[in-house]
Fold this protein.
Amino acid sequence: MIIIQLVAFFLLTIGIVWTLGLTPEQINNDLSGLFDKQQSLQDMSKAARGKKKQSKIITNLLKTRRVLKETGKEKSFSVALALSMLLMVIGCVIAIVLDNIFLAPVLGIFFALLPFLYLMRSVNIYNKHVREDMEMSLSLITTAYIDCDNIKMAIGHYVEELRPSMQGIFREFLGEVDNISPNMEEAIYHMKAKIDNGIWREWCDQLVACQSDSGLKDTLPAIVSKLRDERLVNSELRTALSEVRREYYFMVAFVVGNIPLLYCINRDWYDALMNTVFGKMVLGITGIVILVTWLRMSKQTKPIEYKG
């Protein structure tokens, strides 16, 4: 009976796709459009005054999309959206095969998250390299700026020696100052918006203040040193955080592994767990707990980042 229902479900899905003339490109464009909505003036005003905040999920998705765009992989985001929808359906199908409707939302959400977990892992690796490049770049430019008291000259002196992730940003800064507007403060603010990092924003803000009072430039090295401190702390915590993740995954494996173990030890208990309404509810609640704690664990074991 389940096989007949699955076949009917897939045939119905194929029929809907064929009837509506849906294509992968159209689906990607429609899904991507959810993140490209134009904000009204009222929404922008509330956001500027801090009265309207986006959800963390949307914020993280937009951040992921921005990083992928910067690395020339923006299409991966659209592919991930479409793949996420497909995997969500697959998760629900698995729950139907297991004859447990309570597992449908858990498996659907879990499978839907998989493409974005892969993308976020790539983003985290990219951000790690950016922080390393930022530490070297800001250290060189800050030292040169203190010596010559001219940020344009300091950047121009070292721009060719910087790594690509930072070189492009400082090249655009020099291009704006030379060819668009000589307003140094405005160019620094434009440069500040290109990297979402607390230490970077603090450095840029202090750099703007230095344009009015050059005596403040001696505070810049202390800001740059925060990048080194952040890197050292994360290096010290890496082993401890890995151990926490390992223990968590062991406990999850232990909980899930008890299900087939029951099949070998006590068939009646296994049947009660898999084939009764109460047992199915227990599995659904267990799945929700595992999903929620997994998301919390992933958040709590992330490398620390300075919040300016």
Observations:
- Confidence is low (pLDDT under 50) at residues 47-52.
- Residues 220-265 form the longest helix (46 residues).
- Residues 129-229 form one domain.
